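Moderator note: this is an archived Q&A kept for reference. The question asked for a predicted structure of one protein chain; the sequence and the answer are reproduced below.
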Amino acid sequence: MNIMKSLSLIKVASFAGALLLAASVHANDEALPPELIRELGTVQMQIDQGKRLEARIRLLALLESPLTKADAAQATVLNHLGNLAVKQNDNATALDYFAQIQVLPNAPDALKNLAANMIKQINAGVAQQNSLNIPKPPAPNVLQVPEHRAVTPKPINRVDPIFPVTALAQGAKGVVKLGFDLDREGKPYNIVVIESKPEGVFNNAAIEAMKQWRFEPHTRDGIVTPLTNVQWQFQFNSATESIPAPITK
C-alpha cells in the first residue's frame, strides 16, 4: 500500500499526523486492513481535537479486536499508544508500549527500530531530568555529618509486579533495578530505572509495583528522616521476585 493511498483512506484533520501514519503503514511492508486504517484515522482526529482519553480508549479496544491479530497491525497500534503516552508525559506507560513492540516476533523491523529509538530518547530525557535534581555539594568549611553505614529499608507492604502479557506469551525473562527515595512515611518517590534487561520490557511493571510499596520509616539517632538513593531489584521469571540491591546512603 503506497503512502498516497494510505492518506486517502485515513482522512484525518492533521496532515502531519496523516503523513506519519501513512509512513508507518508503508514501513510495515504489508497492507494493513482498510478498516484498521480508518479507525486509526479517527484516532488521529480525536488527538487533533484534544480528545486524548477517547483516542486511548479506541486504541486499547483495537488491541483486543481481530483487526490487530497480525503482529504488524498490533505493533502499529502499540506505536500509536506509545506516542500518545509521550504526549501525555506518561513515560513509564510509553516505555511499556514500545517494549511490547520489540518482543513481537513478526513486527516490522522499521517499527522495532522506531520503538528502540523512542525507548532510548525517553530514558535519556529521564536521566537528564534527574541530573538537574542532584543536590549541590556542601560549601567549604560547612560541618558535615559523618557517613552512616548503608542500611536496607524493611518493606511492610509489598505488591508483586504484573507480568506484561506480551512478554509472558513470549516466555521473556528479565531484571529491572530501580532507584528511589523514601519519605518520612516510608513511601517511595523519585522512582527511576537504573538498569533493565531486556531494555524497557519490564520497566513499567516494576515502577507501578514499587509505587504501591511501603517501608518502615527510616530513623537516625531516634529521629524519623527521609532515606535517599535506595535501590531495589525485580527479577521477572515465571513468577516475579524482588531482591534488595546494594544501597548507598
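Archived answer notes: Residues 1-29, 136-149 have pLDDT under 50 and may be disordered.
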